[in-house]
Design brief:
Number of helices: 7
CATH class: Alpha Beta
CATH architecture: 3-Layer(aba) Sandwich
Largest sheet: 6 strands, parallel
CATH topology: Rossmann fold
Radius of gyration: 18 Å
Order of helices and strands: EHHEHEEEHEHEHEH
Number of domains: 1
Length: about 210
């Protein structure tokens, strides 16, 4: 009788949760358009030796009022594209803020889902694509459940408390440099198929909270 290969089940199961506003801001600062397919492949593609359970994107929508309707329609088309390409998307309607802006905070939704999905899906690794230090306590809670937590961000936008709470940090800056230079509305434009790349990591000096 053939023996089972012990390495068959060695691949880690990974759950990826993305703060769309946070990562979008980071990539715009770099003057690039966000390539979602490359991002997914970078975090959980064949070269990572991990099996992706789900990649969940949390996105705020412009307010459902006439003055924001054009922007809302564009964002909904982007959400439809994400879903059509295998991403799970959770949206929240925004509220008007200062002139020309709106606010749609998805942090609470993302934190609750991270705990619930981790219990239901049993990932080995959770990757949080955000630099928001408010997620530091969530990282600690997940680690208390025996889950490895990694944070994917760029150094300039990564809060120290989040950096030190995570098991590891994935530096997205090298990936961003492979994205196309941003044009108008490019942050929500579908991108070309991803290329395989290894994931560089960085570890800054430990910071006392």
């Amino acid at each position: 009788m053939r023996k089972k290969n012990p390495d068959i089940h060695a691949r880690s199961r990974v759950l990826v949760l993305v703060d769309e506003s946070n990562v979008g801001s980071s990539v715009r600062t770099a003057g690039r358009g966000l390539d979602w397919l490359k991002l997914r492949n970078f975090l959980s593609g064949p070269d990572t030796e991990r099996d992706l359970i789900e990649m969940v994107v949390y996105a705020g929508l412009p307010p459902a009022i006439p003055t924001w309707q054009d922007e809302r329609d564009k964002k909904n088309k982007f959400v439809h594209w994400l879903r059509s390409n295998g991403f799970m998307v959770v949206t929240k309607d925004g509220a008007p803020a200062e002139e020309g802006h709106y606010k749609a905070n998805v942090d609470v939704m993302m934190a609750i889902d991270a705990l619930e999905l981790s219990i239901e899906m049993r990932p080995d690794v959770v990757i949080l694509v955000t630099g928001d230090a408010d997620f530091a306590y969530l990282v600690i809670k997940l680690r208390r459940h025996g889950i490895r937590v990694e944070v994917a961000s760029v150094a300039a936008n990564l809060g120290n408390t989040l950096r030190t709470a995570a098991n590891d940090v994935i530096d997205l800056a090298p990936l961003f440099r492979t994205f196309e230079i941003a044009l108008q509305d490019s942050a929500t434009r579908p991108r070309a198929q991803p290329q395989r790349r290894r994931r560089p990591h960085f570890r800054g000096p430990s910071a006392k909270n």
